[in-house]
Structures are given as C-alpha cells and as structure tokens.
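Whiteboard transcription, Tuesday session. T.W. wrote the structure tokens on the left side:
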C-alpha cells in the first residue's frame, strides 16, 4: 500500500511539473517575443543624425553608395536632391523622416510597432510596379 501511495504521489508530482518539451516551447516563445515599441518623431530625428555619422565612415559629411549596404544603395539616387551622387546630412534626414511619416499611419507623430508592421504588410502586398502606393 505504501508503495502505491508513493507511486501515485510521484506521478502527480511529475504531472504537475510539466514535460521538458513544454519548457522548451515556453522558452522558445519567450526568446522570440518582441515587445511593442513607440518612437516619437523627435526621438527618431535624433537617431537619424547619429546614424548618418555612423554610416559616413570617411567623415566627409556625405554618404556615398559605397558607404551603404547593397540593399540601401538605391537611397542615394532617391534622396540626392542636388545631383552630386551623395547624401548630405539634410538630404539623409529628409529621406529618413519621409520614411517615418509614411509609417506613421495615423499621423500622430509617434510610430508604433503595429504601424510599422501594417506598413510592411501593405508594401509586400502592393504590385511590384508601385511598391509605395499601398502605404500612402
């Protein structure tokens, strides 16, 4: 009888602890969790300036295509207002703040993680010929 009681108590204890696979699933879900974010336009503007100086590796106050990752090199053509083949701090700032404004879907001056995700989904769903039209 004592052995039976110990067996039942041990089984109950094991069941209460859960399985190792449950622990792995819980840890995996926690590791993939990204907390929601809110960024004001003012804070974003400060980060734009810091990023400009980090990217401008030769410190000539211009960002040229060779200072950008391959996937960002088209930004120079898009934002180069004076046609010198590079982005000045002002051109970079205008380009980045226009990105912020396109993502700020409700126009309240703050960008939430939900707005960024919605903007991203709209861009992906847009036809290839007009990738930014769905987001406007």
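and on the right, the sequence the group agreed on:
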């Amino acid at each position: 009888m004592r052995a039976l009681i110990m067996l039942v108590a041990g089984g109950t204890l094991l069941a209460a602890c859960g399985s190792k696979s449950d622990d792995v699933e819980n840890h995996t879900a926690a590791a993939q969790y990204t907390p929601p974010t809110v960024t004001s336009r003012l804070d974003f503007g400060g980060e734009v300036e810091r990023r400009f100086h980090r990217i401008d590796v030769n410190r000539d106050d211009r960002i040229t295509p060779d200072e950008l990752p391959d996937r960002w090199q088209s930004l120079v053509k898009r934002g180069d207002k004076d046609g010198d083949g590079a982005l000045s701090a002002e051109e970079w700032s205008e380009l980045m703040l226009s990105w912020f404004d396109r993502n700020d879907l409700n126009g309240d001056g703050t960008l939430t993680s939900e707005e960024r995700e919605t903007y991203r989904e709209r861009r992906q769903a847009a036809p290839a010929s007009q990738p930014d039209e769905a987001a406007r």
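Someone added at the bottom: The chain has one domain: 36-135.
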